[in-house]
Design a protein that fits this description.
The structure is a single chain. The protein has helices at 7-10, 54-64, 88-93, 139-155; strands at residues 25-30, 36-40, 68-70, 98-105, 111-120, 125-135, 164-172, 178-186, 193-198, 202-207, 213-218, 225-230, 236-240, 246-251, 257-262, 269-274, 280-282, 291-296, 302-307, 314-319, 326-327, 335-340, 346-353, 356-363, 369-371, 379-383, 389-396, 399-406, 412-416, 422-427. 9% of the residues lie in helices and 44% in strands. α2 packs across α4. It is mainly beta. Belongs to the TolB family.
Length: 432
């Protein structure tokens, strides 16, 4: 199993055994007992079948959050598509607190008109209603957008169903050779598309704050190099190809800088690069340790990183301009691969318990640590942009898969596809 801080060393090792093809599906393995019952009526289609089932997308999204319990279709007492068709007394019998109805229409089969309404059943009032016009190719994204609106309306928190996931997979060719792929999918694992393919490993994808660029490490030229790639155009640039290691890139909150691990001066240290000029500033100075896996605090003024300077991997904090590093983790003999919640209050990490590696969170004010997962061999935690869930890589029957867990540990998901393996997940920011 590739441990977080050991990725720096592993960059020097031969190809990793990650057989994969990536079309992810979500399996809920744990949920909240307080999940809100909601009725999602199949959208009316006026006698035709659109290429996407919007109500099904919304239902799956809300169920995957663990905070909603959509009623089974067979339990729906009627199928209204207009507000005047709704009998709230009937829906109260099902103890459904929310009711979503909608319609889809099209004149040419290429462009679609969609409307939906969300009701509070007990108050018998509309909470939100919207109309859209989208091409056929935009229906799935619209389904995620509607799910986001329903989620935010009923919880007060922003939904993440319209965000994306980045991850690394490996495909095996017919002749037995391998190729690695950096892929991006919807938050539910649908619509995977390949950003980069290579016969050499790809590591450490990291999203730019604008959600339109990725940085990652590629071995395609025979050594580790850090690239920045535009998703819309595919245009990319190598930004770090110094002698030695070039790895673990992380965007600053303003998108103007990268924190990197470089060994250009002989030892792995944290550096900050200004992307516009390419200027480098060295942040850490410890010739006896491996300093790696930098992550920025939301203020942009501080960086957290993994180091074995105390003998075992632990997480430290340092000013982004350099200076004395302070240890952040003290519970347990191994803590690595930090990620920071959007509000800066929580840190996720890989935490060792009895020699097994789990995902844990630490309150950065109190220092309290909570272990969230019961899987083992967990790595690469990545917060959802609303801070509610943590995406990570783990193993199932010896095969790499992705999983997610809520910050309180109550909601658990597995994302996987039979016969595949995926690693190195990163959850995108909200789309602008």
């Amino acid at each position: 199993m590739l441990r977080g801080w050991l990725k720096t060393i592993a960059l020097l090792i031969a190809l990793l055994p990650w057989p994969a093809h990536a079309l992810l599906t979500i399996e809920i393995t744990g949920g909240s007992e307080a999940a809100l019952p909601i009725a999602i009526v199949p959208f009316g289609t006026e006698g035709f079948a659109p290429p996407e089932d919007l109500s099904e997308i919304v239902s799956n999204d809300l169920a995957s959050s663990g905070r909603f319990a959509p009623l089974e279709k067979r339990d729906l007492i009627s199928q209204p598509h207009e507000s005047e068709q709704v009998n709230f007394a009937d829906w109260r019998l099902l103890r459904s607190e929310g009711l979503l109805i909608g319609k889809v229409s099209s004149q040419d089969g290429e462009n679609y008109q969609v409307q939906f309404q969300l009701f509070d059943v007990y108050k018998a009032e509309q909470l939100v209603g919207k109309r859209y016009q989208v091409p056929a190719s935009g229906l799935r994204n619209l389904g995620h957008q509607i799910a986001d609106i329903v989620y935010e309306t009923l919880t007060g928190e922003k939904g993440v169903f319209s965000t994306r996931l980045a991850f690394v997979s490996e495909m095996k060719n017919a002749d037995g050779s391998k190729r690695y792929a950096l892929q991006v999918s919807d938050a539910d694992g649908a619509n995977p598309r390949t950003v980069l393919q290579s016969t050499q490993p790809i590591l450490s994808p990291n999203w730019a704050p604008d959600g339109e660029q990725l940085t990652y490490v590629s071995f395609e030229n025979g050594k580790a190099e850090v690239y920045v790639q535009q998703l819309s155009s595919g245009r990319r640039n190598s930004v770090a190809s110094f002698e030695g290691l070039n790895t673990a890139p992380a965007w600053s909150p303003d998108g103007k800088k990268l924190a990197l691990t470089l060994s250009k001066n002989g030892n792995p240290e944290i550096y900050v690069m200004e992307l516009a000029s390419g200027n480098l500033s060295r942040v850490t100075h410890n010739s006896q340790a491996i300093d790696t896996e930098a992550v920025w605090m939301p203020s942009g003024r501080e960086i957290l990183f993994t180091s074995d300077r105390g003998g075992r991997p632990q997480i430290y904090r340092v000013d982004a301009s350099g200076g004395r590093a302070e240890r952040v983790t003290f519970e347990g003999g191994y803590n690595a691969s930090a990620d920071i919640s959007p509000d800066g209050r929580m840190m996720s990490m890989v935490h060792s318990v009895n020699g097994r590696f789990h995902i844990a969170v630490q309150d950065l004010q109190t220092g309290t640590v909570q272990v969230l997962t019961d899987t083992t061999g967990d790595e690469s935690p990545s917060f959802a942009p609303n801070g509610r869930m943590i995406l990570y890589a783990t193993e199932q029957k010896g095969r790499g898969i992705l999983a997610a867990v809520s910050v309180d540990g109550r909601i658990k998901q597995r994302l996987g596809e039979s016969g595949s393996a995926v690693r190195e997940p990163a959850w995108s920011p909200f789309r602008n």
